[in-house]
Specification:
- By secondary structure, the chain is of the alpha+beta class.
- The protein is 46% helix and 8% strand.
- The chain contains 20 helices and eight strands.
- It has a four-stranded mixed sheet. A two-stranded antiparallel ribbon has the order 1-4.
- It is globular and about 70 Å long.
- The N and C termini lie far apart (47 Å).
- This is 2-methylcitrate dehydratase.
- GO terms for molecular function: lyase activity.
- InterPro entries: MmgE/PrpD_sf (IPR036148), MmgE/PrpD_sf_1 (IPR042183), MmgE/PrpD_sf_2 (IPR042188), MmgE_PrpD (IPR005656), MmgE_PrpD_C (IPR045337), MmgE_PrpD_N (IPR045336).
Length: 502
Amino acid sequence: MIEHHVRVHPSAARLPREEQLAWKLAAAATGTEELDADSTAMAVNRVIDNASVAVASLLRRPVAVARAQATAHRGGTPGASVLGSRSRVSPEWAAWANGTAVRELDFHDTYLAADYSHPGDNIPPLLAVAQHTGRTGIDLLRGVIAAYEIHVALVKGICLHEHRIDHVAHLSAATAGGLGAMLRLPTETVYQAIQQAVHTTTATRQSRKGEISSWKAYAPAFAGKAAIEAVDRAMRGETSPSPVYEGEDGFLAWMLNGPESDYKILLPEAGAPRRAILDTYTKEHSAEYQAQAIIDLARRLREKTGPLDRVRSIVLHTSHHTHHVIGSGANDPQKYDPTASRETLDHSVPYIFAVALEDGTWHHARSYVPERAQRPKTVELWRKITTVEDPEWTRRYHDPDPDRRAFGGRAVITLDDGTVIEDELAVADAHPAGARPFDRPGYVGKFRTLAEGVVTQSAQDAFLDTAARLAELSTDDLDGLFPAVDTDTVAAYDASLPKGLF
């Protein structure tokens, strides 16, 4: 790996483009050639994972709205598929609809380092453009692996959340790079597209603060749509704000660490295998990633606590990120509000720990329904749970060794008689370093569970067979990466929603 220092440069210095971060990202993307076998296998897993969570969210309102907007944009030959519809639409709109479906349940892959990310959000726009432009399965894989490489590098090197910038700014750069790799575009074109994408998708983290709305699902889809449009403009010869990262009025100078910024980005050497996708991991439970180990810890503690009405208090000792983003350190009253939205509840670790402790399980739908959140005994327990930042858990969260990195915490439960029960869990059971790491059967099992009642058994089998052969797929075969569903039922639900402009 090559370490690149990224600093602010005054306009008068005229930083050569080859020394700019956007160019180096573009070069890493366009230099993606021979694909690593392990990375290819993991990319197949993530295609399966995305389909799992997308089919489970088809009849959720934000997904239906995105789908309705997309299917109003029919046209463009040959176009791209929209999950849940027979329509083929312009690829940026297919990316919008399918990206929202993937993101809605907060249930697909993750990578946590200096910042947060869901690298699987790169796949819907890449697949849409692959269909529209007649690419093959191996082309799509090259784009996916390149996008993950860029995404992980940015998330390792540049923290956005400390400046209250939403993490999709890194996503859009990765998607633009992945599209460039898939389409075999010149580095110059990809460089321009990355800068346009970053410039147009930088937004605040208010989308993940307070009363979290449906925009949390839309934000990554918006970034994918914007990246496709940026690539289209760059292919037509249009240029971008440059240098978008290092400029004196640019990203680093005014939105991140200011004029004294000095970030380190690690990118692979020319010809080196692209293996960053192997550093990422998926979710067994439909909740914010920092809650994954907490759910597993709660399930384990049920055997030790006895009747939960005896609990006086529960304190979760955890990392800075967990405490301040999904814990009581966020200072969001909504995280203790029984009437809060699903999007807010899946970012409330006190709520999640309470329900997991009571139920001993976690379900992507039942664990969030209003009658579950508003159960009096649950509310009573929930409001006894707080989080605190523990410097040791923060250090472990950022450990440079992936095998030692920890995203969990320690629970201290005090009962009404003063008895204290303690236990801790560093990583989720499904994490690569966990008790039951996800492998291909794990991804297949997740798909079958979430597809039950939505996708027939034969259609499930057909999709899984197609996904397993991704490297061999022809252009026409890419349609098989969209599991067949009852489109009439989906259309009837869509028709029940209010109309918009389109």
